[in-house]
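Q: Give me the 3D complex with magnesium ion.
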Amino acid sequence: MHRRNLLKHLWAGTALGGSSLLLNQSLTASSSEGKMTSPPRGLPRLKITDVRTIMTAPNGIRLVVVKVLTSEPGLYGLGCATFTQRAGVVQAAVDQYLKPFLVGRDPDEIEDIWQSSYVSSYWRNGPVLFNAMSGIDMALWDIKGKRANMPLHQLLGGKCRFAADLYYHASGRDFQEVEDNVRKAMEAGYRHVRAQVAVPGLATYGTRRTGQSAMSSDAGPADSGPTSPVDVWEPGAYVRIVPRLFEHLRSRLGEEVELLHDVHERISPAQAVQLCRDLERFHLYFVEDPLPPEENDHFPHLRRQTSVPIAMGELFNTQQEYVPLIANRLIDFIRIHLSQIGGLSPARKVAALGEYFGVKTAWHGPGDVSPVGHAAGLALELSTYNFGIHEGYVFPRETREVFPGCPEVRNGYLYANEAPGLGIDVDEKLAAKFPYPSGEPFDFDWGRTRRRDGTVIRP
Ligand code: MG
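A: Here is the predicted complex, encoded as structure tokens.
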């Protein structure tokens, strides 16, 4: 074949899914045999044709899901972009900025799309951009899996385990109610249970409040603003009651059940050290977020003072926050929220980094991670050696109906289905029947919880 005609032919082949590999092989075949014999290899090139946000709240939780459509009819991917507290801003970031940036791009180029999106607004990091990018990123992995006709856990290396162990949330107004709820979880098959108890009269994280917290405020009824807190919380009462809760649970439940606790970042470094030391004898699976991200530099001190396994990081966004804690072996479990750091692509790197430093994954996974996000986390957990635990969320019926293929909870494990990609879909007509709750765009409770003197609490 004349060289010019050969190249013309090869470029056509490239358009059908060829590559530089094909070019080299074909040239070899051509030069040795005088004609091209190798058939085109690889998959046909695709283009991203549309990017859409799906806003739905099937059980009252505002979810943001991104749908990436391609030039192959019927081939699309789904990703979780749920920043439930600021969902409308993520929608704008996807629809007004990432969509025009990415339409026309090749959906196979997942890493380059992530890297170029990361710098596309010049100022980078932050929950809005990262959640928007996560929606795209997970959707591209979903597309990749569908193109390979493999469930994503296969594409990521294959299963290391048959399912992901879950932990259940048990709380109560008093020790007995917490114990009863832990027992219910154990009877349902859970081997790991997180336990939280209300602090009488205070608005405590993870529990329904008991009594009127406003009664704890020292402000007069005529005061307003920070001098008149409505939701009052005090660290002293909290750090005194939590060890007593676990003393109660261990004395009643024995040592077999794995117990967890979430501090939720509200206490001082000195209180965190004391609380962790007080909890050591109850052999917890982990103590979560004993410090806020602003106190990251206190972790070396905490690590030297206690043997309690430490989980950290659901508020983290950037590598500057989580890499030092992992690389310096200061934590045992990394808790980051997949969509909050930009999706599956960065999470794969975090998981791989953790393997070499003895840090296991325990991705943040409450109800404000959509079932699409849970499926993405599960794919990584099934194929990651240093998986620790999956935060359990019992998907309500309406949510499972909106998201066919939702991962299944059985006997305290989360199971993936074996469908290609993330194995999950969204029924858009049904999703539209569950609009966001009316009224305030969010309940804003995080910014309303204060000390008795009115100082706002960093949750
Ligand atoms: Mg937490």
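A quick observation: Residues 49 and 272 are 50 Å apart (CA to CA).
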